[in-house]
Sequence to fold (364 residues):
Amino acid sequence: MKAAVLYERGTPLKVEEIEILEPRQGEVLVRLGASGVCHSDLHVVNGQIPSPLPIILGHEAAGTVERVGEGVTVVKPGDHVVLSFMPSCGLCRYCTTGRPHLCDVGARSTAAGTLFDGTVRFRKGDQEIKHMSGVASFGQYTVANQESCIPIREDVPFDRACLVGCGVMTGVGAVINTAKVEPGSSVVVIGAGGVGLNVIQGAVLAGAEKIIAVDMLDNKLEMAQQFGATHVINAGREDPARSVRRLTGGGADYAFEVIGNVKTIRQAYDAVQRGGTAVVVGVAAVGAEVGLPAFSLPMMEKTLKGSFYGSTRPRVDMPKLIDLYLAGKLKLDELITRTIPLDAVNEAFGAMERGEVARSVIVY
Ligand code: COD
Ligand code: ZN
Ligand code: ZN
Fold:
């Protein structure tokens, strides 16, 4: 099959023919329909997210089950699926306490770039190729653990459905699952990119009253308004924390950092009022540290909290998000700036770096 392989950090992906092996016990061969290009894919290319190499990137995907290995019970050939980029074993301490996105087994195998059994299903000659997050969707097919396969209804196009696999779940879930924003709250979203726009529409779903979007680019702030932001701040022209305090009369109830930058994490913390919660969605470089005024943690009872993958319970949340889309209550069409062939994946990284797109989506 054709796939895009990262051989060396800081180099373009190589789109080439590679060998894909049959699914083994508990595994599923998926014919990919579409894959979003997310900033985390680029983070792996430039080394900000460490990963083994060579690897097939792509972690925001949907497709059709082609064949299943022995013992697969959750899907059958022909089923449409979204792929979860954190396969959850169902048995570890996190899975059994309702936090499948923190699964021990999933964390280990995704860090290793393998499936659950510690091996891979991609090869080029004698060389093994790793799987990003058990999804590896920058290719025509993939083999995934059945634990990654989330069945969905068939009346939603793959280029929409794939977005639920990362950006939409990560953003909407940060609001609904991680922060549990209450109706009437004031919410600040720092970074109105592919994920930040979904934090904004999550805040709309939660019934937030003020939704303040912060970005450096006016085109992103226009999109933010389209997704439900009631106010916008261009961080290149205004100090975000100060403008937020002015707009909210002292600070917001919630702030979300959706960039992965220590400076904007601090801005999120400063933007919340007494009793407020700052939620960090963006992943900063390994080793980066954030300084905080320590007195304000107890004295202002502020909370600083991380959110990974929107604290997703994929089998419940992902079909629900698709239902919301088909009911006209969640925007997916508007997230897709471009649909592209696999060969254009490197150009999609360029467009992302230049801030031109919410999402480029590879359609197979
Ligand atoms: N102030 C304000 N806005 C800024 C600043 C700044 N200093 N710097 C950048 N921005 C804006 C950009 O203009 C852009 O609009 C936005 O921030 C970033 O958006 P994108 O589209 O480039 O990136 P996303 O939305 O696709 O991804 C953002 C993440 C934070 C999710 C991602 O980069 C990340 O940290 N991923 C790891 C987290 C994770 O959960 N990974 C697993 C799979 S995603
Ligand atoms: Zn992603
Ligand atoms: Zn588990």
